[in-house]
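Problem 12. The chain below contains 99 residues. Write out its predicted structure in token notation.
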Amino acid sequence: MSSTCTVHDDHTHVHGPDCGHPAVEHDGHVDYLHDGHAHHQHDDHVDEHDLAGVHAVATPHDHAHGPDCGHDTLQHDDHVDYIHDGHRHAEHGDHYDEH
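Solution.
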């Protein structure tokens, strides 16, 4: 890991296994997806990480997203994300990705 940090200023939430945000393995540590960013708790601050190329699979849920699923949608690049329980899910094969 690099010795320089891109610090996410004024971040008061502490990330961890029970914080409620999706966790993804990234470069030898865990990042938490939060407000459209990837955050890593580091010493006394939170680092902002780029997740380019990281595949974050959404926690399984009991329904399929689609035009009539009842969740708000958001156009994202070449696909639609579904806003679900505070997360953005995108259909990808037989699962949903966290965005």
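Discussion. The chain has a mean pLDDT of 78. Students who got a different answer should revisit the alignment rule from Section 12.3.
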